[in-house]
Write a structure and sequence with these properties.
The protein has 897 residues and is of the alpha+beta class. The structure holds 6-O-phosphono-beta-D-glucopyranose (BG6) and magnesium ion. 6-O-phosphono-beta-D-glucopyranose binds at residues 10-11, 18, 21, 44-49, 52, 77, 114-118, 171.
Length: 897
């Protein structure tokens, strides 16, 4: 179901004013000598003033005139008004503001539907009146709760269908009103009293559950295409669509039956490439029940969907099935709200009996085309395709839709038969699984996370200029990303080193050649991202490719070294040497702009990214007092990557020494010395003796940016940290200020800038954790490693067996697991995190060239047994088992080693 509005009750939901109503009534009842207790009060909640008085007077023998009643009701109100004088903005109940903010960000409308005539005063005192899109004026409402009028009035005024609204109430009468209005009812309080609610929360601190319901959308992606729909499979609002190469090829795809909204919809199956939804259209006034089953998948530039409509009623039905279609060819940066739209010609539409073609030529002169085909004849009503179905009882009406997309002179893909296509996609996913290492443990949760990760990764692999490159994430980053694709390849070495090979090749292909301020291209630099939508092609955004990343280049070298360790492929290494040397040259020259030995960045162009490490939001580099650091910025982790790159290249040069012995010998020593100097200077400049931790960065004055963050955690992975210091870092990372219980936060909860709902200042990122876990493994911090492993594994269960890009950093003891509302899912380096976690706990060290595969395994409490099959090292495949026996961890290889 898609929700567009949330309607709040006030008393007891937004503020704890229900107790003031009670106190005021109690005072009056005492004066009148009438028995009144909390039980009776429960019946007053949500009920208007006069009706409330009537309930209280049930306990009195005296009968009061209307005039007297008005007098006493007014008296109660006077008491009540005195109580609410004390209200301040601090009295807004926990969770309300957080929820409101998320709703606003998601474009969800909000309203207050309160029976209280004091509502405007209370909301003003709380300082949040202006936050709502509408407040129902209780004095103009004829019928109070449980009548639905209050909620229906709110829905009309925010312009959202009642069926697409969520109501939040603390009273039984209010829940009844919400249900009668046809809305989804969230109760706040006692489930025994709020029996009729669709969902009951103890309090709004648990608002994440409401966000979960609202955010329900379905994404399927395969290679370059992805589609995001609402929970019914429709594309209606601006945030949905079918996308290809940074452009929206379908902006409307909305199914209706006789113009009716469905009663129920359920996602029955959801995989990366496939979704199945069952939707029920039921009319209460007659016995018409129609059931629609939608099944869809993506294969080669085509989105396939089959529709099966079944008559579950007792008489024959005639149904008009309509599909509202449109293609606006908006650039993805416009859909994201990042850049405004200047476009080429208006899209043209041609309609035929069995197809609709949308065509658009952009300002870049590129023709983009969406071809929607049906396997039934259709007629048209404006933009709507109409199918007429005559359905005797128990009979079905079926049709299929294929949506094909092309850019420029691409050939239209041949459309396959629906089931043949589906089988082909399934087969390709199975083949991919077989190409990867298989991992089975005695922990079902891990097994399904692993399986989902393998599928996520497969669906994110772009066929990009002949290379298989993991896209960074769906929906916003469905393109090659320097940093993300490289990190994902590093994390995936154990399960499939082939990914790394293609990532290295593509990175080298697009390695910077010249100096260009706008795109931040520099000789030898590795790209940040490559886009190819209209805005990119016309230069409205600088992303074709963009080079504003300071870590991708050292990471490229780190990956090359690790890839070589896993494959021993000397031919490939030789082939990559020129690119590696250019990258190394960049690290030493352009990377270190002031020649002080540290790598620091400062954007060359105003439109470029302010921060060019992985924490790339504008406010991600902040000192303990919350002040934003000024560039040039030298991030801690990038010094670590550079150190690792120098050490790795020194080793690779040593291996290559037979090509040019004299010259290379010097390089090995020179690089080792450079690494040693960087290591020394890093400790000197970044270590904060008073805090016993490394600074996040150095600012323009080479002053330490002294926040406690996860950044130095990556330095464990890189190995730049000396032993004693490493222990301090590791301990701090799993201490309560950094470890939320679900993972390591990006920033300590003690920092001024800490915000568990921010992108980089307190949230938890699985990939960040997984690199730190590899660091723990490198230094032998096994206990630390186990804690992180178990936490992330548990968190995955809260995200339907998947790790998202990030989630909120709230303390596990205080709040349930809370999703970050606009996190990408699937996200490549989140999907690949379980692989890195696994590599970490297995303590794998490989040297393919020497035929060495060694394990130093530890097992987290949640796992007693791991079987790994087909782990590729060099030309060989290894099978092994790790088991906890009598408290000790043992392992054995099956073959190969
Ligand atoms: C509802 C309260 O919100 O408003 C009731 O739950 C109250 O307890 C009703 O009686 C009317 O409020 P007021 O402020 O108009 O008397
Ligand atoms: Mg420098």
């Amino acid at each position: 179901m898609h929700y567009g509005g949330v309607i709040f009750d006030l008393d007891g939901v937004i503020a704890d004013t229900a107790r003031f109503h009670y106190e005021a009534w109690k005072k009056l009842a005492d004066e009148l000598g009438i028995y009144f207790d909390k039980k009776t009060n429960e019946r007053l909640k949500g009920i208007g003033r006069m009706e409330s008085l009537d309930i209280i007077l049930e306990n009195s023998n005296i009968s009061y005139t209307l005039e007297q009643k008005k007098y006493y009701a007014e008296k109660k109100n006077e008491y009540y008004k005195q109580f609410i004088q004390t209200l301040t903005p601090d009295d807004v109940l926990p969770g309300v503001k957080e929820l409101m903010e998320i709703l606003k960000r998601k474009g969800i409308k909000t309203a207050v539907a309160s029976a209280s005539k004091n509502a405007p005063t209370v909301l003003n005192k709380l300082g949040i009146a202006s936050e709502f899109d509408y407040i129902v004026d209780a004095s103009r409402i004829r019928k109070g709760k449980p009548d639905p009028e209050l909620f229906l009035t709110a829905a009309i005024n925010i312009g959202v269908e009642p069926s697409e609204c969520i109501g939040i109430e603390d009273s039984a009468a209010g829940i009844e009103a919400i249900k009668r209005a046809g809305m989804f009812a969230v109760g706040v309080g006692d489930p025994k009293i709020l029996k009729k609610a669709d969902m009951v929360l103890k309090d709004l601190k648990d608002y994440g559950k409401i966000v979960d319901i609202i955010c329900e959308n379905i994404t399927i992606n395969n290679d370059r295409i992805f589609i995001v729909t609402d929970g019914k499979g429709n594309i209606k609002e601006d945030r949905y669509g079918l996308f290809y190469k940074d452009t929206r090829f379908l902006s409307k795809y909305d199914l209706e039956i006789d113009g009716k909204k469905p009663k129920l919809s359920k996602i029955t199956s959801e995989k990366n490439f496939l979704k199945e939804i069952s939707i029920e259209y039921k009319e209460d006034d007659n016995d018409r029940i129609l059931q629609m089953y939608r099944k869809s998948f993506i294969y080669e530039n085509t989105f396939y969907e089959s529709f099966v409509l079944k008559n579950c009623g007792l008489k024959t039905e005639i149904a008009n099935v309509t599909l509202d279609l449109d293609a606006d060819f908006k650039d993805i940066f416009d859909v994201r709200g990042f850049a405004g739209g200047i476009y080429g010609s208006k899209p043209g539409v041609q309609r035929e009996a069995r197809q609709v073609v949308f065509e658009y030529t952009g300002l870049d002169g590129v023709l983009r085309k969406t071809t929607v085909q049906f396997n039934q004849d259709a007629r048209y009503e404006k933009n709507k395709v109409v199918f007429m179905a005559e359905l005797p009882p128990n009979k079905v009406f079926t049709f299929e839709v294929h949506v094909n997309v092309t850019v420029g002179n691409e050939k239209k893909a041949t459309t396959l038969d629906f089931y043949e296509g589906l089988k082909t996609v399934e087969k390709s996913f199975n083949e991919w699984s077989m190409e990867c290492a298989e991992v089975i443990t005695d922990n079902e949760r891990f097994n399904s996370l692993y399986k989902r990760s393998i599928e996520d990764l497969r669906s994110l692999l772009l066929n990009y200029e002949g290379y298989r490159i993991p896209a960074a994430g769906i929906p916003w980053f469905a393109v090659p990303f320097g940093r993300d694709s490289i990190v994902c390849a590093v994390q995936s070495l154990m399960i499939n080193p082939g990914i790394a090979r293609d990532v290295l090749l593509l990175a080298a292909k697009y390695q910077g050649l010249k100096l260009d301020g706008r795109s931040e291209e520099e000789p030898g630099k590795i790209f940040h991202e490559i886009r190819e939508g209209e805005f990119t092609n016309t230069g409205m955004v600088p992303f074709g490719p963009y080079y504003g990343t300071h870590d991708a280049t050292p990471l490229f070298l780190v990956l090359l070294h690790k890839y070589y360790k896993w494959t021993g492929d000397i031919e490939f290494l030789r082939k990559m040497l020129p690119a590696a040397e250019k990258a190394l040259e960049w690290v030493i020259s352009y990377g270190d702009r002031d020649n002080d030995g540290f790598l620091e960045y400062m954007r060359a162009d105003e439109k470029g990214f302010t921060n060019q490490g992985w924490k790339d939001s504008e406010d991600s580099v902040r000192a303990s007092d919350g002040k934003i650091a000024s560039p040039p910025i030298a991030l801690a982790e990038i010094q670590g990557y550079a150190y690792d790159a120098y050490m790795g290249m020194a080793e690779l040069y040593k291996i290559l020494k037979d090509t040019d012995p004299g010259n290379i010998k010097d390089k090995v020593e020179a690089l080792k010395n450079k690494a040693a100097a960087l290591r020394r200077n890093f400790h000197k400049a970044f270590w904060m003796e008073d805090k016993k931790y490394f600074a996040e960065a150095l600012d323009r004055n080479k002053r330490q940016v002294d926040s406690i963050t996860s950044n130095p955690g990556h330095c464990l992975w890189s190995g730049i940290i000396d032993g004693v210091y490493a222990k301090y870092v590791a301990d701090r990372l799993i201490s309560p200020e950094m470890f939320s219980g679900w993972g390591i936060r990006t920033m300590s909860s003690k920092e001024a800038a800490y915000d568990p709902e921010s992108y980089h200042n307190g949230s938890v990122w699985p990939h960040d954790n997984s690199l730190i876990a590899l660091g723990f493994s490198r230094y032998g911090f096994w206990e630390h490693l186990k804690v992180v492993f178990d936490a992330l594994l548990e968190a995955s269960a809260g995200f339907h067996g998947r790790l998202p890009e990030l989630f909120c950093g709230y303390d596990k003891r205080e709040r349930p697991l809370t999703q970050y509302p606009v996190a990408c899912s699937p996200q490549a380096w989140a999907a690949a995190s379980p692989f890195a976690l696994l590599e970490a706990i297995l303590g794998i060290r490989v040297d393919a060239q020497k035929g060495i595969v060694s394990l130093d395994p530890t097992l987290p409490d949640s796992i007693n047994h791991i079987t790994v099959k087909r782990m590729r090292v060099g030309e060989k495949l290894y099978d092994f088992e790790v088991e906890r026996k009598n408290g000790k961890v043992e392992y054995s290889f099956k073959k190969g080693a």
